[in-house]
Design a protein that fits this description.
- The structure is a homodimer.
- Chain A is of the alpha+beta class.
- Chain A has 8 helices and 12 strands.
- In chain A, the strands form 3 sheets. The first copy, chain A, has a 5-stranded antiparallel beta sheet. A 4-stranded antiparallel beta sheet of chain A has the order 3-8-5-6.
- In chain A, helix 5 packs across helix 7, helix 5 packs across helix 8 and helix 6 crosses helix 7.
- The longest helix of chain A has 27 residues.
- The interface between A and B is large, with 48 and 48 residues.
- Chain A binds a DNA duplex through helix 7.
Amino acid sequence: MPNFSFGSTQGRAQPVVVEQARFHSMCDACESREASVCAALDEHDLHRLAAAAVVIEADPGRTFITEGDAADNFYNLTRGTVKLYKLLPDGRRQITGFAHRGDFLGLAVSRNYAFSAEAIDRVRYCRFSRRGLRTLLDDFPVMEKRLLDVASNELVAAQEQMLLLGRKTAKERLASFLLAQEMRKTPCVHSDQPLSLSMTRGDIADYLGLTIETVSRTFTRLKNDGLIAIFHTDHIVILDRDGLIRLADGYTLDH
Amino acid sequence: MPNFSFGSTQGRAQPVVVEQARFHSMCDACESREASVCAALDEHDLHRLAAAAVVIEADPGRTFITEGDAADNFYNLTRGTVKLYKLLPDGRRQITGFAHRGDFLGLAVSRNYAFSAEAIDRVRYCRFSRRGLRTLLDDFPVMEKRLLDVASNELVAAQEQMLLLGRKTAKERLASFLLAQEMRKTPCVHSDQPLSLSMTRGDIADYLGLTIETVSRTFTRLKNDGLIAIFHTDHIVILDRDGLIRLADGYTLDH
DNA sequence: CGAGCAATTGAGACAAGTCAAAGCTGGTGG
DNA sequence: CCACCAGCTTTGACTTGTCTCAATTGCTCG
């Protein structure tokens, strides 16, 4: 599911500008074109789109959008995984989502980003100026439709996450998370391949509204219940998908 | 802030169709036109919009959108307040938001509503068919832009709510809620008028991811702290706005 | 005036948090 | 090649904020 969010290109050291994406061929051969909003454009329109973009790479841990900063740019992720989060003054953190190849970041009506974005692994993205986006959307209404669809899906996902954060138990949260991860990796197809998690226990905890310790203990409980198997902490095999689904959907009254 | 959400026109007894909104004057004189997406349209376009709408009234407690039902219609609320929620099989409920005059409901990419909607007080809304919306948006790109803006704002609000549900204490949640309610009622202006809450303690609890008892106790604690005064359970006066803001923003380490 | 519902308050239980210690893993350099 | 360090994860013991259960109060309306 594409991500659509809000969140300055600043950090300890600047991310690396890889290329000016001013050639038609740039977007034409983009590794994530089908996955992104750019899929809505035909060859000719891609040319104009490319003229407005700068391709940038960022190392793991790099924060390239900071909550509260002026929302001057928006981003289209073409490679890697990014975590989006909000902070409270005392350091409490809530990860509001993970963005992947094809996802759109930084769209905001307000003058400032409402969240921060940090690369989890090595990341590549296209950067557009806010003004650039506006004229682009005016010229290509089809992209606007696409953005609306993406935003609608994001809203559905956000509501689901509110249900999780407000009403589900730790076990239910982790079950929901694992199923969502698997669904994202291989939609529909149920492979027996282990699911590899790119995020740490801390990230999972901050995404599910739990602590690291509770996430760890809950992994162990799911393992002991025979629902999953764990290899090397970040490779998970789902042993009982139906059981996990029942758990995630809140059917369990027993523990 | 306008609401933009997802959630069949069904319930125990059907809501009352008040009028076919087929006359130009209908939307022209609409009590919530400025507040809604319709504000984007000029006189001429309003004519076409009205042709597609049915005006309906519903009593308090009426559920007019049910999660999981086919998403055949979408709605524009013109009067009253609506709660939007998701349920787990055992009855646990999460209210994902409250919709007010001017808010848009039911926009969904998926075939089914992702949430239910229930009238809190007497409600009036315009109902459009899904197909109607599609052709409308095709004809009036300006409305699509408007919807995108609304959806963007909703997403920002949803992220804020995730922070609240995942990381804030009961006191912080209620403080955030009260400030948001006041902000919605009188944006910017800080009146000394008591804030009147249209929802029950149960609704507030299900919105904040708490129980009725905790909400009640937390109201009492805020009162004892001198932050608010409570009249008649549903009329609140904010006595110390700055204190409440600090609390809501998570600055408090003491209690 | 009593039925019914919402809200409050109290007492005790429990799920998840906190604090602390130890295990595991991967990288680095002697 | 191995020892050591640093960071992540797991596990244990204990605490606590919120939930659950239950009783009481207060309000509204017939």
